[in-house]
Amino acid sequence: MNDKLRVLVRVDLDCGQAEVAAQGHVTAQSIQALYVVVKRANHLREGLDVVVDVSHARVDTAALEQLRECSKTHHLPASIDPFQSECRLRIVAPAVEKPLVAVSNAGRRTMAGRRLPALATAA
């Protein structure tokens, strides 16, 4: 996956919704650019629902927590929006990846359905 942040905005004024879809790597630093795009989308019409879709991006934990906090408070950070306009955000987060190696019910290590050799243990 490319680390460069790419953002696409789709707006449906009839339905009162804007989608801000991000791809690439969302970090604590690059999220500032994402906030600016969200702010612009939010100001297109009063009462707009803004969906921030980062499901196809690699999102650092700190950045995801910041997005969730904005969603909870209905405000963007004061450094981005000093007037603290209401911003109704809904976050579509990346799915949690499943581990490649799992332990079956019988205690055998498997990978994608194939049995792996047992690990050697020191005596």
Averaged pLDDT: 85
Helix content: 10-25%
Strand percentage lies at: 25-35%
> How many alpha or pi helices?
2
Beta strand count: 7
Largest sheet, described in full? 4 strands, mixed
Unreliable stretches (pLDDT < 50, length at least 5) are: none
Radius of gyration: 20 Å
Please characterize this protein's 3D structure:
By secondary structure, the protein is of the alpha/beta class. The chain is built from 2 helices and 7 strands, in the order E-E-H-E-H-E-E-E-E. It has helices at 31-42, 61-73; strands at 6-12, 17-26, 49-59, 88-92, 101-103, 109-111, 114-115. Strands 1-2-3-4 form a 4-stranded mixed β-sheet, with helices on one face. A 3-stranded antiparallel β-sheet has the order 5-6-7, with no helix packed on it. The longest helix has 13 residues, at 61-73. The termini are far apart.
What keywords describe this structure?
alpha/beta; 4-stranded mixed sheet; 2 helices; 123 residues; globular; 3-stranded antiparallel sheet
Quick overview:
The chain has 123 residues and is of the alpha/beta class. It contains two helices and seven strands.
Helices and strands in order:
Blueprint: E1 6-12, E2 17-26, H1 31-42, E3 49-59, H2 61-73, E4 88-92, E5 101-103, E6 109-111, E7 114-115
Parallel strand pairs: 2-3, 3-4
Antiparallel strand pairs: 1-2, 5-6, 6-7
